[in-house]
Amino acid sequence: MMKRRVVVTGMGAVTPIGIGVEAFWDGICRNRIGFAPITRFDTADYKCKLAAEVKEFAPEKYMDKKAARRMELFCQYAVAAAGEAIEDAGLVMEDEDAWRVGCCVGSGTGSLQAVEREYGRLVEKGPSRVGPLFVPLMISNMAAGNVSIAYGLKGKSLNVSTACATGTHSVGEAFRSIQYGEMDVCVAGGTEAAITPMGIAGFSALTALSLSTDPARCSIPFDKDRNGFVMGEGAGIVVLEEMEHARRRGAHIYAEVLGYGCSSDAYHITSPAEDGSGAARAMCSALEDGGVKPEAITYINAHGTGTHLNDLFETRAVKLAFGDHAKEIKVNSTKSMIGHLLGAAGAVEFITCVKEMQEGFVHKTVGLQESEEELDLDYCRENCRMEIPYALSNSLGFGGHNASLLIGKYI
User: Fold this and answer.
1) Catalytic positions, please?
2) Taking the model in full, what pTM does it have?
3) Is there a contact between 402 and 282 (Cβ–Cβ < 8 Å)?
4) Is the Cβ–Cβ distance between 78 and 233 less than 8 Å?
5) pLDDT of 187-199, one tens digit each?
6) Beta bridge partners of residue 234, listed in sequence order
7) Is 58 helix (H, G, I), strand (E, B) or coil?
8) Which helix (H) or strand (E) covers residue 287, if one does?
9) Which residues contact 331 (CB under 8 A, 6 or more apart)?
10) Residues 6+ apart with CB under 8 A from 291
11) 380: left (phi > 0), else alpha (psi -120 to 50), else beta?
12) Which of 35, 61, 222, 318 has the fewest CB atoms in 10 Å of its CB?
């Protein structure tokens, strides 16, 4: 079967440095950081004090108030970002076959807020006081469910949940479904809102979070002093579309999705494979899928969490995948500005790649000062201007999930 070409026609974002793609992109270009003391709860007893919270998000700006009350924050973020992406794509559902327009929006955790709130009621007041909507408010598939309901998307509807690789897998699975004719259009991406007492306590117990109290030195991927990631939140949603369908309706095309690669480390529940073989396989598979040779790649948006093991093993993966050419590739981490958005990370970073490709601009890895000996790639200590014919966006998730997307300029 001939694989159909898939393009990006719309984008939407809710991030710690800006709500909406243009505000987010302005923050990226200005190297703005979204790190500040946590305001969602009292951190007096917590070692971790900083997070990258979304500021000034008002759900009623993006959806009906009654509908918003029946959604947890991670769903609200998804619906808001999806609305922007659909509007940006100029997609009019009345003109579409709704059964051919799908949704693939994932979340790594679902609603920890709902779990904490209803568990408190259970303990304090008994099982009869647990809210009747607890389960549909909590479960992670409700991001896809609410986006589908809000915008009348009746096609294939998926919730991918692969921890920190969720956003990338979601876009990739949407790409594959359109490629092979299961749908013509898909609203795809990831969303997360895990800055809660349990979220921060749990990741702190893993020693995964940075304990720095300096916003300028808390999320510093590839730096020798890196000490963990900073929890972020938000959503990234894109509209993917079969190329001829987009052309027929005169849609603006931002970029083309060329390849999608996945693998499993089959190694450890939290650590990537030490030799980088799993992540390398995902990158090589994406290149093979897109018919692009490794030496054609000049830019990678890395998973780049700022944890000691991730940055070291991802560096090994790039070297394994590209050999000597690895030294010629610009490698940066958007998490240096927005922190780790968990299930939303890959989708927001995909949007970053598309914008960078459009503008011929590669952002710096903010906060990076000095790397250790084995971390010897070009991690973008400064912003730079360059043509980007192809971009790779990587995500690595707990459980050994690896995903890579290959994006190309639309020609």
Assistant:
1) 164, 303, 340
2) 0.97
3) yes
4) no
5) 999 999 999 999 9
6) 192
7) coil
8) helix 277-290
9) 222, 299, 300, 302, 304, 318, 377, 378, 379, 380
10) 258, 259
11) left
12) 61
